[in-house]
Design brief:
By secondary structure, the protein is mostly helical. It has 10 helices and no strands. It has helices spanning 21-29, 33-55, 58-74, 85-100, 105-110, 127-130, 134-145, 149-160, 165-172, 176-194. α1 (21-29) crosses α2, α2 (33-55) runs antiparallel to α3 and α7 (134-145) packs across α10 (176-194).
Length: 218
């Protein structure tokens, strides 16, 4: 069903800063299939990886994400009223994933996500910007893979998917302080592996800003 809604178009760049999400929402509300396709191409892969970390099945994850977008299109005339489309989509995928787990859904909703396995397929850091070698990138991937599951999920959503601390807190239904603490753990471990001095600045001082580009060498 979703395939029939997707028209042939591509985003100019896969960067949230280059996409006017509000404009896309307005266009979708006005039955613009091209805008809907742009939104799907931008979020589809990230949401599928997020769903996969919950349901452990690629096929199920892809189906759940398609269901979310089909529902969004069905209710497209209300799309412009969604305050934060990123949080809306992630929460919708999370809820459908938990519901797909049937009897385990209730436990998962209240669980701290410690037992979930999040695969970090792409690290969002720019190796040229950070001036690190391929070997250091490999060591960084290895460090991320050894993070505790909840810590890895939070790190992925912020560093790979480019979400804000507050958005991740809403999606996972945990406090911003918990996000801050888990990111501190992740950065500390990565810095240790790369032999970089850990940043002294508190991670919780700029909760409302994107955190996808803040991990740098001192």
């Amino acid at each position: 069903m979703l395939e029939c809604l997707i028209v042939d178009c591509r985003l100019p760049a896969n960067d949230p800063h280059t996409i006017q999400l509000r404009e896309l929402q307005i266009r979708i509300a006005n039955d613009d299939e091209t805008a809907f396709t742009q939104l799907y191409l931008h979020f589809g892969k990230k949401l599928t990886q997020f769903a996969l970390s919950l349901v452990r099945s690629k096929e199920v994850a892809e189906e759940l994400v398609e269901d979310v977008f089909v529902k969004l299109w069905s209710n497209r005339h209300q799309a412009a009223s969604i305050e934060n489309i990123r949080v809306y989509l992630y929460v919708a995928v999370k809820n459908r994933s938990l519901n797909a787990l049937s009897q385990k859904a209730h436990d998962l909703i209240s669980a701290p996500f410690d037992f979930l396995d999040t695969a970090v397929h792409e690290f969002a850091a720019d190796p040229y910007e950070l001036m690190i070698t391929a070997e250091m990138m490999q060591r960084m991937h290895q460090a991320v893979d050894t993070l505790p599951p909840r810590c890895k999920m939070i790190f992925k959503l912020i560093r790979e998917d480019g979400l804000r601390y507050k958005e991740v807190a809403e999606i996972l239904n945990i406090s911003v302080n918990t996000i801050d603490a888990q990111m501190a753990i992740a950065v500390r471990k990565i810095c240790t592996v790369l032999h970089i001095d850990k940043p002294e600045k508190s991670f919780g001082q700029q909760v409302g800003t994107p955190r996808g580009k803040n991990l740098k060498k001192n």
